Amino acid sequence: MRIVLNFLLFQRNIIFTALPISLLIAALTSEFSNFGFFYFLTSVLIHLSVYSIKPPKELFFYLNNGISRVQLFLSTILISVLMILISQLFE
Amino acid sequence: MSKLELDSVQKTYDGQKILNDVYLQCSTGEVVGLLGRNGSGKSTLLKIMFGSLTADSRFLRIDEKVYTGSKTIRDIKYLPQDSFLIKSISVKSTINLFLSGEYSRIVLELPIVKPLLRERVGHLSFGQRRTLEVLLLLFSESRFLLLDEPFNGLSPTSREVISKLIQERKEHKGIIITDHDYRNVISLSDRIMLMEYGNLRKIEDLDGLTSYGYLT
Predict the structure, then answer these.
(1) Does A54 lie at the interface with B, CB-CB under 8 angstroms?
(2) Of B52, B74, B97, which is closest to A2 when you measure between CB atoms?
(3) A90 — contact with chain B (CB < 8 Å)?
C-alpha cells in the first residue's frame, strides 16, 4: 500500500499538468475520443523532460523507497493507458 | 553481520579520471568515514554505490549477492547533499510514506519530530528537513546507508541528536558518512578513508590526514 501511495504521489504532478493540457488540445481539435492519446503524448513528454535531463532532487525520495526510474516511467505509461481506455468511452 | 563490498569502480568525466579502481567495504555495525577535499569524488562514489550514477565499471556485492549495472538497490539508502523530501506534503505523511509500520510509529513518537507532524515539509527550516531526512534513513529497513553531508545546516543540538542516533542505529546498519565537519566524522567513525586524486587511502590517525595534505 505504501509503495502504491508513493507511485500516486509521483504521478500527482504529472497528472495535474498533463490532464489540463490534453483536455485543452482535445477541446481545440474537437477530438475528445483522442483525449487519451493526447494525454499519453503529453505525460510521456513531461516525464522525460523533467526526470531524464536534470532530475529534481525529489527523485531520490522514490529511489530511496526502492522504486526505480524504469518503474516510475512504467507508472506514467500505465496511467496513460488508463486515460486512453477512459477516452474510448467518448466514442 | 552483513558486508557490502564495492570494487573496481572507475569513473571518467571529460577524459579525466575521477575514480581510479576504487575499493571500499563496510559491514553492519560500523561507521566508515569518508574524507576528502571538495571535488575529490566522494559524492560521485556514493552515487555510484547507490546506483543513481553510472560508472565506467562497478562491482558491488552484499554478502553473497552480486549487483551489476547501475540499478538502485533496496538494501542501500542514500542521503544526497540537497534535500530530497517532497515539499508539498506534511511531515506525518512523509514518515508514513517512507517507513513501514513499526519504524514509522517510532519516528512519529520522537520528541524532535512530534511538534512538526502537521507542518508541510516545505515550511520546515533546512536544518529541520535535514534532521528528518537522516531520521528516515536511520529508521529504514535498509542495511546500508550512504550519508553525504548529514550535518550540513544542522544546529549544534540537532548535530548532537543525530550523532547519538547514528551511534545507536549502527548496531543494525553499515554507514558510510562524508561531511565537511571532519571532527564529527572522525568521532563517529570506526574507520577513516581519505579520497585523494581518485584513490581511496586508509587513514590510521590524524597524522595520516596531515601527511596526505588534508589537514595542515
Answers:
(1) no
(2) B97
(3) no
Task: Say yes or no to pLDDT of A21 above 80.
Answer: yes
ipTM exceeds 0.85, yes or no: yes
Per-residue pLDDT tens over the stretch B36-71? 888 888 999 999 999 888 888 888 999 988 987 667
Q: Tens digits of per-residue pLDDT, A23-60?
A: 999 889 888 888 889 999 999 999 999 888 788 899 99
* A65 lies within 8 A of chain B by CB: yes
Nearest-neighbour CA in chain A from B69: distance (Å): 13
Average pLDDT for B135-162: 90
- The C-alpha angle with vertex B177 and arms to B156 and A2, in degrees rounded to 5, equals 90
Q: Which residues of B touch A (CB under 8 A)?
A: 50-52, 71-72, 74, 77-78, 80, 82-86, 89, 96-98, 100, 137, 140
Of B48, B33, B28, nearest in space to B151 by CA: B33
**Structural domains in chain A (count):** 1
Q: Which of B43, B47, B52 to mutate to test the interface with A (most CBs of A within 10 A)?
A: B52
Residue B66's beta-bridge partner residues? Answer: B61
Query: Would you give the DSSP letter of residue A52?
Result: I
| Residue B117 CB coordination number (10 Å) | 13
Sign of CA dihedral B5, A60, B82, B10: positive
Phi, psi at B112, each rounded to 5° = -80, -15
Per-residue pLDDT tens for B92-125?
Answer: 999 999 998 889 999 999 988 999 999 999 999 8
Q: How far, in Å, CA of B83 to CA of B121, rounded?
A: 10
Best of A58, A64, A68, A69 to disrupt the B interface (most B CBs within 10 Å) is A64
Q: Structural domain of residue A76, as residue ranges? A: 2-89
**A30 CB within 8 Å of a chain B CB:** no
